[in-house]
Design the sequence.
């Protein structure tokens, strides 16, 4: 009796398994690093832009430099002296506003945050071995004073440029000047126009004469070394030059009209 052979099984092409999506927990180390930096940058942009918007309307109560100076004095065994009061710009003498423009940033009202000619001039001067000078505008100094620390690293300068662009766009010139005159160091432990005029001249910030305003502006390169009153011959010469240049500033119009 013949035995029937079993019929051969039909071969079918098996369908390939669909690729499963990677689970969040199975991300590679490189992907985790990438997402970390993306989140970090989003947080940075959010916080930085938010803080600039916040200080457009709210007085700046404290700056990193104020904290640094207090720590330096404490560690050096000196008295920790701190004098700072916010003064609206309409109560700050126009003479002082003209004086800082004349001494620190002659193109403040027309530039967009950076004076590239001044930067180039400063670079050439430093390259020749002359006394180191800066080319920072009032906008750059304000960005540094309010949001950053002192230093000359490329990283800090990059952040300074970033914050300078932000305050130029969000604040505008008048607010930049107001914050600058309320936060800048104008003596050892003396910050802002209100404290400086009281410290140096025993008067309010709205009543400065051109020469008194020039006296404060003249010491800004090193306010802990120089004095606005009882000044050295060097500072007295700076005062006279600043007063002359204040006339060239003319009428200050922050809206550019």
Sequence:
């Amino acid at each position: 009796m013949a035995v029937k052979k079993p019929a051969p099984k039909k071969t079918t092409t098996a369908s390939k398994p669909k690729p499963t999506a990677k689970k969040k927990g199975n991300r590679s180390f490189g992907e985790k690093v990438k997402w970390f930096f993306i989140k970090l940058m989003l947080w940075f942009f959010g916080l930085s832009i938010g803080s600039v918007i916040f200080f457009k309307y709210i007085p700046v109560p404290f700056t990193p430099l104020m904290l640094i100076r207090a720590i330096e004095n404490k560690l050096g065994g000196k008295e920790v002296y701190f004098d700072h009061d916010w003064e609206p710009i309409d109560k700050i003498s126009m003479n002082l506003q003209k004086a800082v423009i004349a001494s620190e940033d002659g193109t403040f009202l027309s530039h967009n945050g950076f004076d590239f000619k001044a930067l180039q001039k400063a670079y050439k001067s430093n390259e020749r071995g002359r006394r180191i000078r800066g080319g920072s505008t009032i906008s750059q100094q304000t960005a540094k004073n309010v949001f950053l620390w002192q230093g000359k690293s490329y990283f800090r300068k990059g952040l300074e440029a970033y914050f300078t662009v932000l305050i130029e766009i969000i604040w505008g010139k008048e607010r930049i000047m107001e914050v600058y005159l309320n936060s800048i160091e104008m003596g050892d432990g003396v910050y802002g126009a209100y404290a400086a005029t009281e410290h140096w001249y025993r008067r309010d910030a709205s009543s400065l004469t051109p020469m008194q305003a020039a006296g404060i502006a003249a010491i800004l390169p090193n306010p802990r070394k120089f004095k606005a009153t009882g000044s050295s011959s060097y500072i007295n010469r700076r005062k006279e030059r600043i007063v002359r240049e204040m006339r060239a500033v003319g009428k200050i119009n922050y809206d550019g009209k």
Observations:
- The first strand starts at residue 83 and ends at 84.
- The CA atoms of residues 103 and 136 lie 12 Å apart.
